[in-house]
Amino acid sequence: MRLEDFDTGTTYQARVLSSERITAEQAEEVREIVLEVEREQFDYQPGQSVGVIVSGEHDQGHKHHFRLYSVADTPATGDNGKPRITLCVKRCNYIDEYSGERYQGISSNYLCDLRAGDSVTINGPFGIPFEVPEDKDADLLLIGMGTGIAPFRALIKHIYQDVKDWRGRVRLFYGAQTGLELLYMNEEKDDFSQYYDQQTFEAFQALSPRPNWADPIAMDFALEERSEEILSMLDRPHTRVYVAGRADILETLDRVFARIIGCADQWARRKAELKAGQRWVELVY
Prior knowledge:
Blueprint: E1 11-21, E2 30-37, E3 49-55, E4 64-70, E5 76-77, E6 83-90, E7 93-95, E8 102-104, H1 106-113, E9 119-126, E10 140-145, H2 149-163, E11 170-176, E12 201-207, H3 219-224, H4 227-234, E13 240-245, H5 249-261, H6 264-276, E14 280-284
Parallel strand pairs: 10-11, 10-13, 11-12, 13-14
Antiparallel strand pairs: 1-2, 1-9, 2-6, 3-4, 3-9, 5-6, 7-8
C-alpha cells in the first residue's frame, strides 16, 4: 500500500527502546520491538494497529512505504510519561511469481534491523479493537495464525491483569508451521504460560502435520477436534469470535465452521448474525 493511498493523518516519531528476537535461530526470525512515542498521548486498544512509514526511494517507485503492524501488548508508559508500544515483526522475504527473483520485504526488514536508540516514523492507531464484553460471563473464541498472535497476547493480558474476575471461557487456537514458530509459546518466550492456571483459559496449537513450508497448518483439525465446545460457545448470545493473521485462513474457517454447524448455508447465516452484532471481527492481512 502506498502512503498516498491511505488516510495516514498525523505522524509521530518513536524511539526504539529494545529489539529482541523471540524465535530460535533455526526458525524464521521474529522480533519483539518496543517503541517509545515522542508525545504524551497515543491511545490504542488490543486489536488495533499502528502504521510504520519507511522513507526512501523504493523499488515500487514511491518515496514512502507504509505498513500496518498489530500492537502486541497492553498500553504502557515509561517513567517519563511517554507511551510505549510493542510490535511483533517477522522478517519477510518474497519470491516474485513471474521472475522467481527473491527480494526483501521493505518494512519488516527495516524494523528488524533497527536497534535501541534508532528513530522510526509511525501513525495511527487504526482498526477496530478487540473489545472485551461488559458481561464477564461471555465466551471468547480467539483464532490466530503466525504474527496474528500479537493482538491476542495483548487481549488476554488485559483480561486477566486489568479486567480480572473473568468467568467466561477464553479459548485460543493458534497455528504455525512448527513448534519453533509458535510465537510467545516457544522455548525462547512463553508468555501464555502465566495464564494456564486460570480455569477459564485454554490454548490449543495447530501445527503442520509435517514441518515443511508447503504443508497446510492443521487449524481445521484443531477446531473440529473441539467442535462440541465450539458449538456451545456459538450458541451463547454474548460470545465473541476474533480472527487474526493471514487472510487465507478465512477460507479454511468457513469450511470448518460449515462442517461443525451442519452446512455452508447455516454457517453463512450464523456468521452474518455474528458480524452484524460485531461479535465476529477479523484482523487479517
